[in-house]
Amino acid sequence: MAKTLSDIKQALDLHLGQRLTLKANGGRRKTVERSGVLTETYPSVFIVELDQEENSLERVSYSYADVLTETVQLKFF
């Protein structure tokens, strides 16, 4: 993706409302894969509304630093 936090935020702003799949580090060598819609971006974090039939959580939030360090990987449809 982009190289700075502001570049990542600007890139995600262009994808608001789009479906995505995210792959996140779940800790202790676990990887979590979820799908949903990018609903909001804030100065420090972005929010993904998850598909209810697949996940017990309604939404998750991650920081742009998570994308920069590749702790979270996003793939848009």
TrEMBL record:
Native source species: Priestia megaterium (strain ATCC 14581 / DSM 32 / CCUG 1817 / JCM 2506 / NBRC 15308 / NCIMB 9376 / NCTC 10342 / NRRL B-14308 / VKM B-512 / Ford 19) (Bacillus megaterium)
GO process terms (BP): regulation of DNA-templated transcription
Name assigned to this protein: ABC transporter permease
InterPro entries: Protein_Veg
Superkingdom of origin: Bacteria
